[in-house]
Design a protein that fits this description.
two-stranded antiparallel sheet, three-stranded antiparallel sheet, 5 strands, 54 residues, mainly beta
């Protein structure tokens, strides 16, 4: 299998109220990127890359 294409897009989601509590902080927005990979056989998959709360 050989990866032939990688697409990404930014996705910003706002939380209602006080935000989302995480073990290392509280976040009021979740910033991450959705990543789609495709291989030469036509298979594809989706994942995400997220950064820690600030």
């Amino acid at each position: 299998m050989r990866i032939t294409k990688i697409d990404d897009t930014e996705f910003i989601s706002n939380f209602v109220g006080d935000g989302y509590a995480m073990t290392y902080g509280r976040q009021v927005k979740l910033y991450h990127r959705l990543v789609r990979l495709a291989d030469e056989d036509g298979n594809s998959g989706v994942g995400e890359i997220a950064r820690p709360a600030v």
